[in-house]
Amino acid sequence: MIHQSAIIHPSSIIEEGAIIHDNVHIGPFCFIGAQVEIGARTLLKSHIVINGITQIGEDNQIYQFASLGEVNQDLKYAKESTRIEIGHYNQIRESVTIHRGTIQGKKVTKIGNSNLFMINVHIAHDCIIGDHCVMANNVTLGGHVRVDNHTIIGGMTAIHQFCIIGAHVMIGGCSGVVQDIPPFIIAQGNHATPFGLNIEGLKRRGFSRSSVHAIRDAYKILYRSNKTVESAKAALKALAAEHPIINEFVDFLIRSQRGIIR
Predict the structure, then answer these.
(1) Is 79 part of any domain?
(2) What is the DSSP string of 221-242?
(3) Helix, strand or coil for residue 171?
(4) How far is CA 32 from CA 1, 3, 21, 162, in A?
(5) pLDDT (tens digit, 9 = 90+) per residue, 106-129?
(6) Could you tell me if 142 and 118 are in contact, meaning their C-beta atoms sit under 8 angstroms apart?
(7) Catalytic residue among 99, 122, 125, 150
(8) pTM (2 decimals)?
(9) Cystine design at 137: which of 70, 92, 151, 155 (Cβ 3.0–4.6 Å)?
């Protein structure tokens, strides 16, 4: 179904069954598969391939040579019915690739809202990306990576499969991430190590002074006290009783499977 207000260049191919909502603009030489749904006011520049079971929300901008919803690169994949879901207000720049999920994951690769993926970003199968994230040129995410809200990842960074990147994290360019990065932290290097807190980012996002001080205390517990992760977790729980924002650390440590960067 193609809404009558959609604008589609005659050189583009829209397979029967695709759903194109109102005021979508599809530029030249695009291919849209039969199981694709594109939300209102989304713009496809040109030379874009969207395939598989792919749901794209409203007001997204997708640039030339992006490939969304293609078969993933997991050798175990056997043409099972898996998908990708993309939210609203995302900018997906040139040559970005986002692959469909696997049955070994949750069958879905999921992108939130208001993200910016710069040129040549690769998001592998089963990744879950939150809202308001920025990934600079040539960032590569392995399968099953989770990136929480308001995270910034510098160019040329590679993140190992199954890693979790906490909210408000900033990762410097050319880093190699092989373990989980707790929220609010600045990390860089190969392998990535912590370099303090993303204080400027917290200020820009309106965190109160008391919350920032509590996050500083939590960082000291986790990284400056020589505690084991388990003993640090107990100390963080006590701090969270007074400052609920510290539950971000506690919940993250519970979720972590690969261990945290130290």
Answers:
(1) yes
(2) HHHTS---HHHHHHHHHHHHHH
(3) strand
(4) 12, 15, 13, 30
(5) 999 999 999 999 999 999 999 999
(6) no
(7) 125
(8) 0.97
(9) 155
Strands 185-189 and 122-123: unpaired
* Domain extent at residue 116: 7-144
Residue among 23, 102, 18, 80 nearest 55 (CA): 18
The single residue of 74, 126, 131, 180 carrying the catalytic annotation is 126
How many domains is the chain partitioned into structurally?
A: 2
Catalytic residue among 39, 87, 130, 143: 143
Q: CA distances (Å), 39 to each of 6, 20, 156, 188, 215, in order?
A: 11, 7, 31, 37, 39
- Token readout for 111 is 């992108």
The question of whether 155 is a catalytic residue gets the answer: no
Catalytic annotation present for 125: yes
Cα distance between residue 179 and residue 142, in whole Å: 12
CATH number, residue 223: 1.20.1180.10
- Which tokens go with 5? 């207000």
The two tokens of residue 179 are: 């373990």
pLDDT digits (tens, 9 = 90+) for 147-173: 999 999 999 999 999 999 999 999 999
CA distances from 50 to 11, 36, 39, 206, 257 (A): 15, 7, 13, 37, 32
